[in-house]
Write a structure and sequence with these properties.
4 helices; 0% strand; elongated
Length: 74
């Protein structure tokens, strides 16, 4: 989910146990990094609402339809 979490998470190949171990060890040794990731994740999650998702889909559909707005009130 890189497109969702971006800089709010550490990403590793799920099939690579060495990568998991390395990231988990690095995080264990870096409480400041953990706090920064946690803060970024909370901020990011706060914007992931049903309303925001519906609005983004609506903008996309309007754009794909080649319109500047919908022919009805949303």
């Amino acid at each position: 989910f890189r497109e969702i979490w971006a800089d709010a998470a550490e990403f590793v190949d799920a099939r690579d146990p060495d990568a998991w171990r390395n990231v988990l060890n690095a995080l264990t040794d870096d409480p400041i990094r953990i706090a920064l990731l946690a803060s970024a994740a909370r901020d990011r999650a706060a914007g992931l609402t049903r309303e925001a998702m519906a609005s983004a889909y609506l903008r996309t559909y309007v754009s794909l339809a080649g319109r500047e707005s919908l022919p009805f009130a949303a």
